Every structure is written in C-alpha cells, then in structure tokens.
Amino acid sequence: MSRRTLTLLVAAVVAVGVIYLFSNRSGMVSGQTAAQAQNHADSDELVSGPYEVVKDWPKPLATLFPEEQGWTWGSTQAVYAQNPNRIFIGMRGELPIIVGGAPLNVEVPGIGVNGRSIWLTVPTPGLPARNASVGPTASPGEPHVKFVAQEGRDYRYQHLIFAVDGQGNLVDDWSRWDKTFKRPHKILISPYDPEKRVWVDDDGRCAIFVFSNDGKQLLQTIGTPNQCGDDATHFNRQTDIAWLPDGTFFVSDGYENTRVVKFDKNGKYITSWGKPSWDWRTRKDVPGLPTPPPPNYFHTVHGIQADPVTHRVYVSDRENHRIQVFDENGKFLDMWPLGEYAAIYHMLETADRNMWMSDGHGTFKIYKYNLDGKLLYSWGVMGPQPGMLWGVHEISTDQDGNLFTAEVFNGRAQKFRPK
C-alpha cells in the first residue's frame, strides 16, 4: 500500500468518525424532544420508529445475480415502491464484499498538532467499515473527488437499476440500460400518471430519462444529456421531481444550479426561480449575503414536493438547513429553519398531507412535519446494523404501509413494515 493511498484511506475513516460524533450529539437532542412527546413504553421507538426492519430484504446481490459472487451493493441512491411487489432500486454500481479480518494499525504523518504523526486503527472499531458513496475508492460518479478506483477490481458498474418483490426477489432487471446512466440519482413515478412511466433522474448526465413501466422503451429525455447548463433545455445536476395532478412538474436543480424549474405536462419549460448563496465554480459562499441567506437563495436544492390541494411547492435548501415554500409560480411563502445540522436529502408528502423527510448526513433521522412546518415526530439512529440508517437518500412507501429507504453511505436498500 502506497503512502498516498494509505493517507487517503485513513482520512476517509477519520471523516466517518467525525460524522458519527456529530450524529450522536444531534441524536441526543432529538431523542430528548421525542421522548417528551411520547409515552415511551417501547425502548426501540427512537431506533426504528413505528416500524420494524425486514431483515434480508432485498436478497443478497449474488442471489439476485449469481454471476456477482463476491460483490455487494454500491452507493444506493434510489428506491421507489410502485406497489408491494414491484420496488425499484437504483445504485452506482457494485463494490467488493468486506468479510472482516484483523484491523490495520497505521501511522498517519502530519495530522496532529504541529505536524505530529498519529497512529490510527483501520477500520475504526464500532464504525461502518466503508462509506459506499464518498471517497477515492467508493462507488464511481461522485464529482469533485480524486477517484483512483479501478473498474473490475474496486467496483463494477452494472445492474444499476432493477426491481424486486415484497420478499426481495428479482422481478425485473434493467441492466440493458446501464450504459445510458452515469449517476442515477432518484427513481420516481408520478402518482397521477395512469401509465406509471418510470422517471430516472440522472444528475451525472444532467438529464431526466422517462421510460415505459416495463423498461422496454425510452419514451422521453428532458434536459440535454452530457451538456450541463442553466436555461430552458439544460440542467446542472438536477436532483428531484414533483408533480401536480394536471401533470405539471417541478425539478429541483440542483447540486450546481440553484433553482426550481417548472414544466408543463409535456415537458415544455414554463419558468424557473432561485439564486445562489453558494458558487459551485469557486466552491465558496457568495460574498455579501447575510447568514442565513434571504428567501429564494439556495445551496444544494436537493428535494421537492408539490401539494395537490394548495399547489404549494416545498423545496429542500439542503446546505442552508431549511425548507423553503413557494406557490406554483415561484412566489415565496414560508421558511422552515431545521437547525444547524440538518441536511434533508428527500421529501415525501403522504396521503394524510404530512411531510416526511430523510436527513442524510446531519442527524441521520427520519422526520415527520405537518405542512405548516411543525415537527411532529422523528426516529432513527446512525449505524450499519439492520434498521439503522446512514445516508438515506430516497424514501418511498407502498399501499400496505411499508417504508423503503435507499442509503448512499451504507450502500443498501431497506424495507420497514409497520409494527
């Protein structure tokens, strides 16, 4: 192992440790608040909330695809439950299975005070062995990372999208489209679409691909693939999609752009709104803005929902740690400050008109808010064990009330059923 590679490996482990410490701190605060609001008879209520995890769902990768012996899930970004027996999962390729072994004690030069070397144990006991999403040898597709992994040895970029049933068995394999995708970010189906077309948001290609439900046909492409921009026909790493009952849809755009884009039901551009509080070119905050930035300023527009009754549009302003609320034409209406650690990856308005949100790298929890911005409930703890959460990037529910999560850092999908 080269000194450079060793330093990168240890740096990644240190980063995981820092995340873990912050999650514990945040978890205690949220836990105290939730405990006050509950008759806390069940000691596991804050771990898995009103659910219990379904273990061994989905089946191991090599069970679904026998040729993948020795490989497991890569960074799992997408999950969408069309019904209890058709759940789409999307990931950024496969990673080698870690089977354990003796920890490695390594001396890392220059990380202590005054350039002091410090000995560390890799992997760190008690922490996940690997971040599947971020790092020079993680799943491919993460921009702004000095990626050194080699395809075939450190990862395989295949089986990016597939569907399983309620028992976790394979029901559909979309591998024929693997070369179409660079970074499948989220998978969605409009709840108002009788054809149940499947929308794959690929922020790596700056485009949205719309497929027939069986995956046999690519029906439409929105945006210009491999040409990122900031106008009526270009995105710059868009992140999510939300619909109104008449088919009008909104795109949160995104990691590099800082706007919401509105389209008609046919994909024709209508309008957009939003200004940057952070400049993706310089990787710095825009100078001269107050803290927090004013309404309509964004830093990482990462989630979006549209209420079918009021037509209000709810937007995750992720790195400004807040939700911004607009009318359907972009008029600012409300702001929900979420606390300095919050990082909302996905939003899901349920049939009872409450908003569920997943916090991917701040507190690692699942939150329930009403549509006026009042926190009603939270649950979840950070960790690699079944039922724990680390980097929940998308959440979905089926008609039986089951909850599904896709975790970018743990590299897995999970199924939770109501208790």
Describe this structure as you would to a colleague.
- There is one protein chain.
- Helix content is 10%, strand content 37%.
- The chain is mainly beta.
- A hairpin with a 4-residue loop joins strand 26 and strand 27 (354-359).
- The protein is globular and about 60 Å long.
- The relative contact order is 0.15.
List descriptors.
4-stranded antiparallel sheet, globular, 419 residues, mainly beta, 3 helices, disordered N terminus, single chain
Poorly predicted parts: 1-43
Helical content, roughly? 10-25%
Q: Please report the number of helical segments.
A: 3
Largest sheet: 4 strands, antiparallel
Strand order of the largest sheet: 1-32-31-30
Q: Let me know the average pLDDT.
A: 91
**Strand content range:** 35-45%
Alpha-carbon Rg, integer: 21 Å
Question: Can you give me a brief rundown of this structure?
Answer:
The chain has 419 residues and is mostly beta strands.
Question: Mind sketching the topology for me?
Answer:
Layout: H1 3-37, H2 45-48, E1 51-53, H3 61-64, E2 71-73, E3 76-83, E4 86-91, E5 94-96, E6 104-108, E7 118-122, E8 161-164, E9 170-173, E10 184-188, E11 198-202, E12 207-211, E13 218-223, E14 238-243, E15 249-253, E16 259-263, E17 269-273, E18 275-276, E19 278-279, E20 284-285, E21 297-298, E22 301-306, E23 313-317, E24 322-326, E25 332-337, E26 344-349, E27 354-359, E28 366-370, E29 375-379, E30 392-397, E31 403-407, E32 412-418
Parallel strand pairs: 18-21
Antiparallel strand pairs: 1-32, 2-5, 3-4, 4-8, 6-7, 8-9, 10-11, 11-12, 12-13, 14-15, 15-16, 16-17, 19-20, 22-23, 23-24, 24-25, 26-27, 27-28, 28-29, 30-31, 31-32
